[in-house]
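Why should sequence recovery work at all? Because a backbone constrains its sequence more than one might expect. Tight turns favour small or flexible residues, buried strands favour hydrophobic ones, and helices have their own preferences. The token representation captures these environments compactly. In the example below, the structure is given first.
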């Protein structure tokens, strides 16, 4: 790899696990709630990690960051989740440098999502970057990369139809209900949990089921009331959860709890009950399947639902990939300039030393020496020379490495050692 002089650490890594090899149980063991993310970032700061972004969604948990070895990042993840290094190694992926950059582009663009074209990850990537910046863990390279990924995501969303049909986990859950429940408009639906997936599911329920018997419950009632007020829905206290479950025909669970909040002991009714668990970790205990009247569906199953909408999206993958390559090329061009930035900086200092020595000589020789004018002229000349060298180094037809070595040799430049990326 080439030297790009962007970090005092050695390499940029993307480490993580996703729905591709890790089932919901394993993903649940490595999931990070808000407190766990804060703890991980604090530990990263203590360990002198320079820059790091961590994301955790229902279908993946990832860390993007600088380290001498990926184990530093893997250890951070395992220390702040219920997962072990052995479990991680069985299902995980580790990308380095340009492969890590390419991976972030695919994830942020929806091409690596469990449901093709699902762009929910990009908003979390933005939030995660802000949190890292707050902890002093977002260097110039990582911030620039995240912004480039956001730019690619926006372009793909507006210039292609890869996200047409609003398909997502929340939409897939409502689609499943519509396809498997008769007379859904007259069923009692209970939505437990009003986080992002819960809110999106609620909106899709109202839009597509025409159901006027939807009840919301959240541990923090005011959050549920904000959603309920928007859609004119009934909101009940968390204390009424069991009572509401037993009046429901459909229960959708989308909480952020780290352990099951629903089990068979809460279900006293004998009428058929469809439960959709949209949570990672799973929030519905598998013991509910012991009840003959209960059907339990998890989001991993919902994510496998393919229809004409999803098939149509695949036609737009080449266009999305072309946009990614275009934005990535712009990012790599900026990255390439980082390769020679220290040499140009050192050259500028060397020329400034030459100018200072010559000005000192002329100052002693000339009684009427014009200090301000001489300084202005010398600074302008230094800037023109360094700009000329910079333009030369950007030329695709020359060997940047050879030119850098020649400049260093001719001007006897010394640079502080930098990182490889």
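From this structural description, the recovered sequence reads:
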């Amino acid at each position: 790899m080439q030297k790009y002089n962007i970090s005092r650490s050695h390499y940029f890594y993307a480490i993580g696990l996703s729905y591709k090899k890790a089932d919901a149980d394993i993903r649940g063991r490595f999931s990070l709630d808000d407190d766990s993310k804060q703890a991980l970032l604090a530990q990263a700061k203590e360990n002198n990690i320079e820059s790091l972004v961590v994301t955790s969604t229902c279908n993946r948990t990832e860390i993007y960051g600088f380290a001498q070895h990926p184990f530093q990042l893997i250890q951070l993840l395992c220390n702040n989740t219920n997962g072990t290094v052995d479990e991680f190694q069985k299902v995980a992926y580790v990308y380095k440098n340009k492969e890590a950059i390419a991976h972030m582009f695919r994830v942020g663009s929806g091409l690596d999502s469990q449901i093709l074209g699902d762009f929910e990850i990009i908003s979390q990537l933005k939030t995660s970057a802000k949190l890292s910046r707050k902890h002093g863990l977002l260097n110039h390279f990582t911030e620039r990369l995240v912004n480039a990924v956001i730019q690619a995501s926006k372009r793909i969303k507006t210039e292609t139809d890869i996200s047409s049909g609003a398909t997502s986990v929340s939409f897939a859950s409502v689609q499943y209900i519509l396809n498997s429940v008769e007379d859904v408009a007259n069923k009692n639906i209970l939505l437990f949990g009003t986080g992002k997936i819960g809110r999106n599911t609620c909106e899709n329920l109202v839009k597509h089921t025409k159901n006027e018997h939807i009840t919301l419950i959240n541990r923090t009632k005011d959050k549920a009331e904000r959603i309920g007020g928007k859609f004119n829905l009934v909101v009940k206290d968390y204390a009424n959860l069991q009572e509401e479950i037993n009046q429901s025909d459909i229960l959708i669970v989308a909480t952020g709890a780290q352990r099951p909040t629903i089990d068979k002991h809460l279900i006293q009714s004998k009428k058929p009950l469809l439960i959709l668990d949209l949570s990672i970790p799973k929030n519905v205990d598998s013991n509910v399947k012991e009840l003959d009247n209960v059907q339990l569906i998890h989001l991993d199953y919902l994510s496998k639902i393919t229809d004409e909408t999803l098939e149509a999206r695949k036609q737009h993958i080449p266009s999305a990939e072309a946009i990614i390559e275009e934005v990535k090329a712009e990012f790599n061009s900026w990255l390439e300039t980082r390769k020679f930035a220290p040499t140009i900086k050192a050259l500028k200092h060397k020329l400034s030393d030459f100018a200072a020595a010559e000005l000192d000589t002329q100052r002693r020789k000339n009684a009427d020496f014009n200090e301000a004018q001489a300084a202005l002229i010398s600074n302008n000349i230094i800037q023109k020379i360094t700009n000329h060298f910079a333009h030369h180094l950007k030329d695709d037809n020359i060997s940047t490495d050879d030119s850098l070595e020649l400049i260093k040799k001719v001007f006897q430049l010394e640079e502080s050692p930098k990182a490889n990326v």
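A few observations help interpret the result. The longest strand covers residues 11-18.
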